[in-house]
């Protein structure tokens, strides 16, 4: 049966061919979510290929979100819904410490500035990017990247997920490999899988994305890198100066690898912005969404990039067809340049720092040591498998997210972390949650 169809409908002689054949069988409905794929040994024997070839094919499928490894239970077809989503989980009687949302009371009310941005209709043929917002963004993004103004282009997208999707579509082909932080950003992982790209996990430690991990991902064929320089979700890690320098040094001789930086926390972060984009790099982009401080419903992200990347990014952003609402663009600019709003954003930043530190102190009373980090969440280490601890916490009336949900690819060993969103809880609720975590991990 060498290289021909197997009983599962899978064929091929190389890892790429086998993965493509399995993908086609999934898309045709011949293999359905939950179906078991042939064992590595059986498929290798049927196709007359080395077992490592099948292992590589299954890794491609897993990286594209099409298959999930279950250890000794084998590999099964995944569902597109297998990636967890951010947001509120409505479970009766439970306290939501899983949502990852900003505090609604800290999102500025746009009413006071709204009157000043309406009444100016935009017609077909108008610039895709509002000129005022473009200038404001260019000045700040270029300064943070230390990029000459004539090398910076500004694009406005409908949020960070839209920016990632357009960047992947413009710069990559389905099946291309992308180096991403592991554990990583849920929306980014979902965008990769839906687009059919292969996510290559790069470990994250207290100083951010690791150099050794990125080096391995590049050796495995990564054509793009997505990095969160600060407030990495879910860990809260921010790049140290030493780590950022090491990553720039690694990338200095690889100008054609696209480097995408997602600075989702930006104005709320108390960590300095440290870029990994080397000077003179050919393909790069910096994404800054406003959702964490102006609210998810604003649905705007500012993207600074090199001219070629901006052209690819903007292919589907054309006047009168797919622009981002100029009303939203003008409203975002009005809010970002309003003194009272900026003061509220600064107060929100102080809130997240203080409340996350308070929760870490509550955990410390139970011997759970966590160094406060940046962002909306706290990455809590546990002794037992995180998924088991999360299940026990749910039985006690608490919703948290196990670390497994943030993995780029399936792993043999379970995660021993929880991601907890506790900034909205009062001190007594934090104390009860910390106690519940300790008891559920006993």
From TrEMBL:
Transmembrane segments: none annotated. GO terms for molecular function: DNA binding; DNA-binding transcription factor activity; pyridoxal phosphate binding. The keyword DNA-binding applies. Residues 12-80 form the HTH gntR-type domain. Keywords: DNA-binding, Pyridoxal phosphate, Transcription, Transcription regulation. It comes from the Bacteria. Pfam families: Aminotran_1_2 (PF00155), GntR (PF00392). SUPFAM superfamilies: PLP-dependent transferases, Winged helix' DNA-binding domain. The keyword Calcium does not apply. In the C-terminal section; belongs to the class-I pyridoxal-phosphate-dependent aminotransferase family. This is Transcriptional regulator PtsJ. It comes from Microbacterium faecale.
